[in-house]
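User: For my dataset I need records formatted as: sequence, then C-alpha cells, nothing else. Please produce one.
Assistant:
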Amino acid sequence: MTSSSDALQNLRTGIDVTPLRAKWGWIVALGFVYIIAGFIALGSVMIATVASVLVVGVMMIIAGIAELINAFQIKSWSKFLIWALLGVLYVIAGFVAFENPLFAAAVLTLLLGASLVASGVVRLFLAFNMKRERPWMWVAFSGVITLVLGLVILAHWPVNSVYILGLFLGIDLIIAGVGWIGLGLGLHRVPTLRAA
C-alpha cells in the first residue's frame, strides 16, 4: 500500500511514475545527449539544415509509399488516381530533397516563414477578439513574437535558407534536452512508495 502523500501525488498527476523513477538517470543522460546534439547542430547549422531536410525527405518518401499502398485499397478509379497521384508526388518530393537539399531547404524555409506569419496574424486576431481579460495580452504577445519571427525569416529569404532550419533544430534539441533533464531530476525527487 502507499502512504497518503504518495496517494495524493498519484491523484494529482493521474499517473504512476514508479517505473520511470527507476530510470531517472537514463532520462537525465538522454537530456544531456540532446543538449550536446543541439550544440553540435548550432555549431554547424548548414550541416544541420541539410540533415533536417534529409529527414524530411525520408518522411515524405515513407508517406508517399503509404499513400500508394492506400490507393490500392480504394475501389473507385477516380479516388484511386487521386491517392496514387498524391503518393507519387510525395515520393518525388522526397527524392528532390535528396537530390538538391539546399533547394528543399529554401522551399521549407519559405513555408516556415509564411506559416509563422499566418500563425501570428491569427493569434493577434484572436487576441483582439477576446474579452478584455488578462490572458488576451499573452495571446497578443505570442502573436507579435510569432509574426515578427516569420517576417524576419521572409525578409532574409532565400539567403537564410542554409541556416534557419539547422538553427531551429539546434534550439529545439537544446530545449528538449533541458526538458528531459528536468523530468529526470523531478522523477528522482519523487518519494519512493512505502508500505503502509
